[in-house]
Design a protein that fits this description.
By secondary structure, the chain is mostly helical. It folds into 2 domains: 39 residues, no CATH class; 46 residues. 81% of the residues lie in helices and 0% in strands. The protein is built from 4 helices and no strands.
């Protein structure tokens, strides 16, 4: 497929538009063949791996949520104090 893309991107190629359209089905078949070859390389994670990764993601999300909530509270209180100080003068 990379060869087809490189050939199509070559400005010196004097192919007519009709030839490019005619080569479309061949390029599609080649793309589908390469896609199938790549999909055969894909490894599906086991149930245990999925469970472990899900737990890690959920714990991480809750830790970040707690951190951002703490930062929000601290910054909010700080800004409130600044406004109170400025409004009292």
């Amino acid at each position: 497929m990379a060869k087809a893309i490189a050939a199509a991107a070559n400005p010196e190629d004097s192919s007519s538009g009709l030839q490019q359209v005619a080569s479309g089905p061949k390029r599609l078949v080649e793309f589908l063949k390469e896609t199938r070859q790549e999909m055969r390389k894909v490894v599906t994670p086991s149930r245990v791996e999925v469970k472990n990764m899900t737990i890690i993601v959920l714990v991480t999300v809750f830790l970040f949520a707690a951190y951002f909530e703490l930062v929000d509270i601290v910054l909010g209180k700080g800004i409130d104090q600044i406004f109170l100080h400025l409004s009292s003068h």
